[in-house]
Write a structure and sequence with these properties.
alpha+beta, three-stranded antiparallel β-sheet, 3 strands
């Protein structure tokens, strides 16, 4: 296991969590989140697909509406903040639980 790469990826996840904007999340941050999960998957040889944000959940948003011309959409795609935070928090909690050391045995060990 590449300890340094793992710690870098975990630090980026924590940073993404600490700097979440109050509105929708731009596609580039979703991509960075998914890329970090893929790196962690490779390092730990685990499946984190349940935490990745699907491309169908990243969409342009309506920026204006004209009754004659219809809706105008942004060029940039966005993800709902709630979905992003749910996936991000879940991934951080899961990875943290996975990396915790098992409790050490206490007491005497009988070697017979």
């Amino acid at each position: 296991m590449s300890q340094e790469k793992l710690l870098q990826s975990l630090a980026i996840l924590e940073s993404l969590k600490s700097n979440v904007p109050e509105q929708s999340i731009k596609e580039r941050y979703v991509r960075e989140f998914n890329e970090n999960l893929m790196e962690i998957e490779q390092i730990l040889n685990i499946d984190l697909s349940k935490f990745k944000i699907d491309t169908k959940d990243v969409k342009p948003r309506v920026i204006s509406y004209d009754p004659y011309r219809g809706k105008r959409y942004s060029e940039v795609k966005y993800c709902e903040r709630e979905l992003y935070l749910t996936k991000l928090d879940g991934a951080i909690v899961f990875i943290s639980m996975l990396l915790k050391e098992p409790p050490k045995e206490m007491g005497f060990i009988n070697k017979v």
